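In response to reviewer comment 3 from the previous cycle, which asked for concrete evidence that the modeling workflow produces usable outputs, we include below a single protein chain processed end to end. The sequence was submitted unchanged, and the resulting structure tokens are shown without manual editing.
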Amino acid sequence: MSEQTTLAQQFPAGFVWGVATSAYQIEGAANEGGRAASIWDTFSHTPGKILDDSNGDVACDHYHRYAEDVEHIANLGLDAYRFSVSWSRVQPDGRGAWNEEGMAFYARLISALAEKNISAHMTLYHWDLPQALQDDGGWLNRDTAYHFAQYAREMAARFGDQLASIATHNEPWCTANLGYGNGQFAPGVKDEVAALQVSHHLLLSHGLAIQAMRTQNKKAKLGIVLNQWTADPATDSAADHAAAAWEYARSVQWFMDPIFRGHYPALALAKIDQSRFIVLPGDMEVIHQALDFLGINYYFRAYVSTETPPRQPETKLGLTDMGWEIYPEGLSRLLIGIHQEYKDLGLPPIYITENGMAVADQLDGEQIHDTPRIDYMQRHFQEVAKAIEAGVNIKGFFYWSLLDNFEWNSGYLRRFGLIYVDYVSQRRIWKDSAIWFKGFVQRFRGRVG
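The workflow returned the following structure tokens.
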């Protein structure tokens, strides 16, 4: 029996295998079909913000090539596709009139998936706020949370019976801390106090959106997607342990506790200026909504050192092309820890909604031999299987990403895809990892011995 077959047999029947993308990273057609600008259009067209001075105007041209991309998903033999909606494509100003041409694009995409028996998993917000809302303060403006709830209600009303799931946000930690904390992402604000307030408004918008979508009584499961990591002290020193606990509180628990406990973690609150952190009466009750699923994105751990300079991990498996430590065992430890901490607090079934590796892929004729990515996938699949064996209720895994794409402030310099994209010709070429993943899923389904 092959190693691939042995690994595949560790997952329960009905486990969902899929791939994920996001709108701004692949769609292109930035100025077509009634779409208005988002904050990423503005940010990527600002000199010096993107490493290769590129933008998402064309990206993978998925807007025009969606049928081809759905065919690739089907040929991979996958069950599911996770994608996000460009808010400014369906509602250009983030409020007011709906853009029917934009809505029609997502209707066509969802129909194409259904024709191939691929379940559709929609994310409402993957960082691309309509610029019109940013002009009024963006996520620092509490009103944005209410506009988001109206948008969520409309998308659920139109598509909720055709979708397997709807996630409110993808990685609100990034929206707050990279968008408003250090300015690395759009809208490029550098204000840690603002980042805290933004995180609250994001969570408030999540709760309001869940409430709004529930009123539509649709089939789609409702949840949120959070990026998470373990926080490991570099040494056994009390200082490193305290710093690691703080890191976990300000990142993972900062979002999990309001959702599942109805309050922010005390350890994190103790270290912020609460006089500048505005939480209105009733906010926490709104955020504390029952969920049908929790999406977890995992790429690396936090390795916490209080030494100067900080001690670095040994990186036994090396680094990805993003410079991130490859640390698969952190995934099982994270999942088991989350299960133990929140299982009695309404923790719903979990999906691994993103996990993947950037590799400096090179074309070899018409092939891409991305052996490191295959090894990465195998190791992380093993850790998911380990967590399932330990009792964690994990229902599926979405690899990031289907396609090479616009990798935010890295532009087109980093490649995460199972499928190589030649950005000039828009040719799609399967990497060895795509071929491996197809074989793995076939073995999971028992079609191959």
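The chain has 16 helices and twelve strands. We consider this sufficient to address the reviewer's concern, and the full set will be provided in the supplementary archive.
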